[in-house]
Write a structure and sequence with these properties.
101 residues; mainly alpha
Length: 101
């Protein structure tokens, strides 16, 4: 095993990316399921939106970290993770700035 070759980490990053993405999607589904019958503008509705904003922020950070990791080993998957991270980040900023509940 040649440690000077950074491409040996690519399968581990791929596994981490898939596992992290699935985990974030499952967590989002759990939040939607847990608050499925809440009324608009109720406390539970605000709590659901707060949880979704938290998950969006964590998703943004995760995808940006994955993009940086792929760029370190010079793999093209970094662009995909960058686009997903920026999409999550712009969604989060738009929700945080407009305070849409």
């Amino acid at each position: 095993m040649d440690i000077s070759n950074p491409h040996i980490f690519s399968p581990y990053l791929a596994g981490l990316g898939v596992l992290g993405t699935i985990t974030l999607l499952v967590m989002t589904g759990i939040v939607h399921w847990q608050y499925r019958e809440c009324h608009m503008h109720s406390f539970r509705w605000s709590l659901r939106n707060w949880r979704i904003k938290q998950l969006s922020a964590v998703s943004c950070l995760f995808f940006l970290a994955m993009a940086a990791s792929y760029w370190v080993i010079q793999e093209p998957w970094g662009w995909l993770y960058l686009l997903i991270g920026l999409k999550c980040g712009t969604w989060w900023i738009r929700r945080a700035v407009t305070r849409a509940y």
